[in-house]
Amino acid sequence: MKRYQLHIGGKSSAPHSGAWFETKNPFTGEAWAEIPRGNELDVDLAVQAAHQALTTGPWAEITATQRGALMRRLGDLIAEQATSLAEIEVRDNGKLLAEMQGQLNYIPQWFYYYGGMADKIQGSTLPLDKKGYFAFTRHEPVGVVAAITPWNSPLLLLAWKLAPALAAGCTMVVKPSEFTSASTLELALLFERAGFPPGVFNVVTGYGAEVGTALVEHPLVAKISFTGSDATGRVINEKAGRLLKHTAMELGGKSPNIVFEDADLEQAAFGAISGIFAATGQTCIAGSRLLVQRSVHDEVVKRLIEVAGTARMGDPMSVDTQVGPITTPIQLQKVLDYIDVAQKEGATAVLGGRKGTAPECGNGWFVEPTIFTGVRNDMRIAQEEVFGPVLSIIPFEDEADALHIANDVRFGLAAAVWTKDISRAIRMSEKLQAGTVWINTYRAVSFMAPFGGYKDSGLGRENGIDSVREFLQTKSVWINCGAVAGNPFVLR
Ligand code: NAD
Q1: Which fold has domain 256-439?
Q2: Catalytically annotated residue among 89, 186, 284, 399
Q3: Ligand 1 centroid vs 106 CA: distance in angstroms?
């Protein structure tokens, strides 16, 4: 079995604990690699390495243009390794190879886009209200960034933090999810091949309560960039608040996918299915609440059952598979518990509703694609994030009703509207409380489009031209050009 090492200061190293834990393949249920169990001593070494690179190492000395060139080289190396990195992710999180290969093919674009931005970070000269001074601003790296990432799309979600952070000149220590650490450790090796100075990118694997906590509390960490559940996000943000650290929080969602009666119903049904079943529902932007206008409710339900009912579960590495396993046994149980809750609340499973036990599921942790009708928006199944292949369908009467139901939830990550009426589409996009609104599409993301949550779905934005600012701090520099200092004790 492959045994991984930590990556600290440009070198692979064994964890201080002397312990490793197994990472398992969700399709076979078998361990395939050993991941180092880092602790606070490893965190300290990694943060010290990142701090040294930031302050005195060659990273601090190279030009922003050179930084951009290194980032583009890294992008090239990721592109070269895309297939093997995608296969590692599938082995760890069980998502379809098509999805992970698509993500890996796309990730280099983050390093090209933000690599190009590295030498375009400019301060400004200030029009002052005082004579005899000249003042300008500098935008400097915020410091050492701790990135804490989840298991569903490990490298893509890391790239959303890493690329703008590097462009800004920051250095980073990453703690990937304990369930999907391997690809991040493999990525670290590419940094050395690309020629990055040691200490710019460090990886300490392990558990949230050990490595995660130590990272959040380390005095030399300036910013915590977190993607994960809102429960963990709250714990981290509270600590970071006490320690006066910068934070960015990309949290969960319960996104409404809203189908009006005038929509292209075939497209809307495909959009609904890709919104919830394509990634086995294990995506923060899962369209887990389908709001359907009552007049077309039955027709939409029929179409969904027809398409989702034929979805093939199976080996996520196989091109024929359409629905893969759930990443962990704990998550499998959580999804099954929510299915139970929904049934007890009075919802009707018109598709699925069980653990996947078909022969093609092997020993994997599967849940059948599940569709509930008869859902009211105040039910737990409509309010809480399931993070699995479970769709709740809620009927609505008119635009006002749709908006009320869509916004009546504590999350606000994404929303979609299916309609041919452009005025309605624009009205809805204004009133939906969500960081992303899609019109007649679902799940589109790009390095160019800001992404983040309203309400309990998070703080800050990733992607887009401005996200580099999230890793910068501004300094004002004042120069005396002839202002005469008078006696400070004399009032003027
Ligand atoms: P999680 O909150 O359980 O874990 C996320 C990370 O935090 C892991 O690396 C974990 O080890 C670490 N962690 C746990 N406890 C910690 C602590 N006390 N201190 C520091 N670190 C700690 O989330 P998950 O189950 O891995 O991921 C699924 C969640 O992530 C879902 O809620 C999903 O919506 C969310 N998510 C959000 C986005 C987004 O961009 N908004 C993207 C993907 C996933």
Answers
A1: Aldehyde Dehydrogenase; Chain A, domain 2 (3.40.309)
A2: 284
A3: 22
